Amino acid sequence: MVVERWKASNEAQCCSSPHLNRSGKRSKAIVCSLGNIDFEWTLLKCRNCNQTHNPLKDFLGLEKNQKHSNEFEKLCMEAVASESFRRSTMTIKKHNEKVDFNHRSLHRWFMRTESDVITAKYSDLEVILGDGTGYKKFVSQIKLERENKIKEKTGQKTIERTKRGEVKILMGIKDDKSIVPLGA
Fold it and tell me: N or C: which end of the chain has fewer CB within 10 A?
């Protein structure tokens, strides 16, 4: 059924007269809200142009090397909207113990979206405000000690890194008293 629907679509038209044959199978694990699902992809190869096709992958809307479903990515982005990346990961793993992924994956998926792009016209702003908030950041003691040993050997001044950081944001207030984020 998937192959027939795929053949009827434009994605199957790799050349002027495609002649598709089975070209083997590949296994792949996809992370979704149900957990890790193992798929076995059936590959099709065009005899005329030697292009390889994957109908099930195209049917599911997965990109090359994508290891998670679009539905799972959307679920994760909704969790990130209310919590931090680490807390969102723990929350998702708590609800579904079969899912295994890292908070860095959430960060990478978030950065691929247009969520961090903020567009605002400065001409319609009445007031521009800056604010900051402190946070504790991770300082690798091993890396810091290694860098300081090198600096001591070369005669440079050693560095002391604090565990405090600050996130600064800039926002504006429009004439209608609504707040507009300008950047971080």
Answer: N
CB crowding 119-152: b at 16 or more within 10 Å, else e: eeeeeebeeeeeeeeeeeeeeeeeeeeeebeeee
- Residues 41-100: pLDDT tens digits? 888 888 888 888 787 777 777 887 888 888 888 888 888 877 888 888 888 888 887 787
Cβ atoms < 10 Å from Cβ of 28 = 16
> 127 is written with which tokens?
């007031």
- The residue ranges of every structural domain in the chain are 2-60, 70-112, 122-183
Q: What is the DSSP string of the chain?
A: -HHHHHHHSGGG-SSSS--EEEEEEEEEEEEETTEEEEEEEEEEEETTT--EE-HHHHHHTPPTT--B-HHHHHHHHHHHHHS-HHHHHHHHHHH-TT----HHHHHHHHHHSSTT-----GGGEEEEEEEEEEEE----HHHHHHHHHHHHHHTPPP----SEEEEEEEEEEETTS-EEEEE-
